[in-house]
């Protein structure tokens, strides 16, 4: 069983670091607050950099999941990467009601995190999925000549990047636990692979990075 919440106890827990990135106001903070407190924040307060922690049990082993909330505003571009060292998994978040935030994943967020963490697992997260059924929001999008990001389009991006895709709602908590369960599993798999690589010949990291950017650029062209 994955991600069973447990009460804080004085026992040594394995630490996993999960960093959330994405455009401003896509709902990163709401995801964390809803998951860690079981409540939804009523007011929007722009984030600078905040850290949260939750203790869970995976296969009867305590895991302390450190959640790092980052600012999506451009003025933090030079500071944000200081949050990236030692990250075990990234959650790349976009708002399913704002197509531009999906484009930002390939145009901005993937290139940014790839500079410092090219081999760290990523999960694509579509936020505010509950608004797809909100007629008022859909009409407003139509007036701009846009429509909500379809699940199939987002999943196609995730497949291109060999990443998992989960869409959720912090308000209704639909699939919310699944997001962080997937993050825990991806982080644990990533650590296991790193351990194995210590006993295997090193691969050409530069070629890996070039291949990653080739796939990013290819998919960006498809979106355009």
UniProtKB/TrEMBL annotation:
Its placement in the membrane is given as: Lipid-anchor
What SUPFAM superfamilies does the record tag this protein with? P-loop containing nucleoside triphosphate hydrolases (SSF52540)
- Give the matching PANTHER family: RHO FAMILY GTPASE
Task: Please list the cofactors this protein needs.
Answer: Mg(2+)
Q: Name one GO biological process term.
A: regulation of anatomical structure morphogenesis
One GO cellular component term: plasma membrane
Checking PROSITE patterns in the record gives: RAB (PS51419), RAS (PS51421), RHO (PS51420)
This protein's UniProt keywords:
Cell membrane, GTP-binding, Lipoprotein, Magnesium, Membrane, Metal-binding, Nucleotide-binding, Palmitate, Phosphoprotein
Report what the protein is called: Rho-related GTP-binding protein RhoU
One family from Pfam that matches here is: Ras
Q: Does the keyword Coiled coil apply?
A: no
Q: Please name the NCBIfam families in this protein's record.
A: small_GTP
